[in-house]
Amino acid sequence: MARVGADDARLGHARYTYRLRVSSGARTALVAEWGRCRWVWNECVAKSRAAHQHNKATGEKATCGPAQLDRMLTEARARTPWLREGSSVVQQQVIRDFGRSRAKAHKDIATGLPVARRAGMPKWKTRREALPSLNYTRRGFRLKDGRLHLAGGIVLMVVWSRDLPGEPSSVRVHQDTLGHWYCSFVVPAQVQPLPKTGRVLGVDWGVRETATTTSDAHDLPHPGHGGKARAKLSRYDRMMARRRPKQGRPGSKGYREAVRLRAKAYKKVARQRADSGRKWAKKVVRDHDAIAVEDFRPKFLAKTTMARKAADAAIGATKAALIEMGRKHGRDVRLVHPAHTTMDCAQCGARTKHALPLSERTYTCTACGTVSPRDKNSAHVMLVRAGFNPAGADGTRPPGALLQEAA
Questions:
Q1: What single DSSP character describes residue 127?
Q2: Among 52, 204, 275, 389, which one is most buried in terms of CB atoms within 10 A?
């Protein structure tokens, strides 16, 4: 069981994202900077693959870490004026990002994760498909008179929708699929405590309902934003299919317009899902001091018949919003391992001898005879396993044998 509480909230960092107003000159400079960074990334990929092939052929163990790549970048900047025109700060950050991505892929292989769950080795970034994303450390940017000044003389106008709570340590400038530019500042995380309520809540994730809790007033029904926009999205998919260019050929104006319309529709759906998740998370955190959350990872649902509905529910994004909201307001959020939560009885702690099918919506305990909705019983089990006093949850026994067994 993992714990995310007020003590942990004072550590770490948070991101604050703002829209950018980019002039034509600044846009040209950003695209040129991204071209240099993309070249550095592809060179890192080439070096990594070359080292792998060399080790495979000779049996040696040549490395391709950040130190070797830094030397490669220094040599390349010394002999390439075009690369030297760009900022060394953002190019070094590309190497750091590549190193983290490659290390994560090697770690997944070493730990024996299934192929479907591995991060995968870094791949090429193509000009047509890869969207610009530039990372600057503290010595690569500064804020002056409300404007963002980047290394290389790039000045950007920030739309300050809210004030920064602290001094930023880094910034990421990126472009989305609609061509809009954003900047994302990293600042020290801060706690904004809320009044104590004396109540606790258990949360169980699902597909029919995104979140089922021990309180009927805080259940989150499936919003169905993707289903409402499915007709429009299917229309844009057909438009793209009719206008799709041959491999290696640039897309026509009609194809690019269809891509833009499709991206705009998907962006709206994504924003609706995020808005629903944040509003629900704020309501839950405001009304409860402690929350027991199922540590559910919905990635495996992508290979089931429930993949579309599970993706539309945005369980992962809603769970992340709840954890972040709890950190922000100093609430005690505990992640509970999901094993056997649908098989245990919240009243007596007995466990059924078989897993209940997803079509079964009622849980009946064979030991004490308790009958309750399946997801409601699972939400109560979250409270018991987390060790919270379930005084505010009707029908849930105090922590006992089941808690000791889970520990």
A1: T
A2: 204
DSSP 78: H
Q: Rounded to 10 degrees, what is the CA torsion of 398, 402, 404, 407?
A: -120
Q: Is pLDDT of 146 > 70?
A: yes
C-alpha 326/C-alpha 293 separation (Å) is 11
Q: How far apart are CA 203 and CA 295, in angstroms?
A: 10
Indicate the DSSP class of residue 396.
-
Q: Say how many C-beta atoms besides its own lie within 10 A of residue 58's C-beta.
A: 9
Per-residue confidence at 7, pLDDT binned at 50, 70, 90?
very low
Residue 301: predicted pLDDT: 73
- Laid out side by side, the sheet with 332-336 consists of 2-4, 332-336, 290-294, 200-205, 209-213, 220-221
Q: How do the residues of the chain divide into helix, strand and coil, expressed in percent and rounded to 5?
A: 45, 20, 35
* The residue type at 84: R
* pLDDT for residue 279 is more than 90: yes
Residue 161 CB neighbours (<10 A): 9
Give the residue, 333 or 369, on which the prediction is more confident: 333
Q: What is the pLDDT of residues 235-268, one digit of tens each?
A: 999 999 999 998 878 889 999 999 999 999 999 9
* CA–CA distance, 261 with 273 (Å, rounded to integer): 19
In this structure, how many other beta carbons lie within 10 angstroms of the beta carbon of residue 329?
A: 16
- What is the distance of C-alpha 205 from the center of its chain? 17
In DSSP notation, 241-307 reads HHHPPPTTSPPPHHHHHHHHHHHHHHHHHHHHHHHHHHHHHHHHHHH-SEEEEE---GGGGGGSTTH
Binned at pLDDT 50, 70 and 90, residue 280 comes out as very high
Q: State yes or no: pLDDT of 155 exceeds 80.
A: yes
